[in-house]
Amino acid sequence: MATWGFKGGLKWFNSGFVENKEVKIDVINELDREFELPDGCLIVPGLVDFHCHVWAPGALVGVTDIEYLSSGVVAVVDAGTFGYDGWANADRLWQNSQIEIRSWLSVLPEGLTLHPNPNPTKPENISMERLLETASLSGQRLYGFKVRLGQRGVENDRGLLTVAREAAEKSGLKMMVHLTDTSLTIDEVLDTLRPGDILTHPYHGKKGNILDAKGKVATCFLDAVEKGLLLDVGQGSKHFSWKVFKQAISEGLKPHFISSDLVRNTWKKPPVDDMSYIVSRFIAGGLSKDEVFSSLLNNATDFMGIKIDPTKNLVVLQPDYSKISYSDSEDILEGNIRYSPVIQIFNGKSIFVADYLSK
């Protein structure tokens, strides 16, 4: 057993960053080391991705748990990759992962195992019995039911919301609703949701977004958030607009969760890339470092019911202040900050140390 010491930078403490004089952490099968960190480095226990897609057999859309870990992520929530036809098998695999994996159950039996899906299951053909049976066997690993709107039209969207609401009421679990591209009014979507439910992709710029005809955040939406509706960024490649985000932030509508919505096709590719890229985007976009990391290390872990032990887990994020363009599906935000993980210790083991720090 060795001890690694880290001096300099800022370290996460409770709900914000403080000046780091020295952090010491025990590391298995290593020699004692001391690190003098470059200015501006952030020390956190790990990154948490509240909305992503995790690989398991039958779902090529997902990114593997090892890939998440390699990017500094120690806990994730799979956002409905599987429905009841495949969730149990995926969950058995995920329970054996090194990282913490929790999930939402797609109300579609096939989930996203076929994506894009030209013929998703119709609401009338979804088995409520199987939704509830799957939920009853999930323990604390399943948070509720995920609805992806915008695939087949208004009546289909309305039916999916009805199915998910009934399943949530009968199981005592929650709903997560993917907002992008629906032709339902925001009022009707919100009527289905309850305090503690999740609306993901709220800042998208496509039809069915949260702005009214005057370009302001709809009053009903502001009211729903005030009553306890939770907002998840769910960045993705097509589900985020800087214009909508900036307007929402100007009206005090900040996200509860900052997440990637990573899939295989967006892994290590802008505008998603990985979680260190995502946190950098939103710091460049006007949120403070404390706000961004609190969404990961406080809000997400509290919702998930997990703890990340800082005596065994550490990630060092180093800033690059070069000019960088953060695109969305419509626009570009010019920034000058990009954090990248350069050291990770996970469960007391060294995962990686950047080459230049190894010298």
TrEMBL record:
InterPro entries reported in the protein's UniProt record: Deacetylase_Atu3266-like, Metal_Hydrolase
Gene3D superfamilies in alphabetical order: Metal-dependent hydrolases
Signal peptide residue numbers: none
GO molecular function, one term: deacetylase activity
Highest taxon listed in the record's lineage: Bacteria
Protein name: Amidohydrolase-related domain-containing protein
Species assigned in the record: Halalkalibacter alkaliphilus
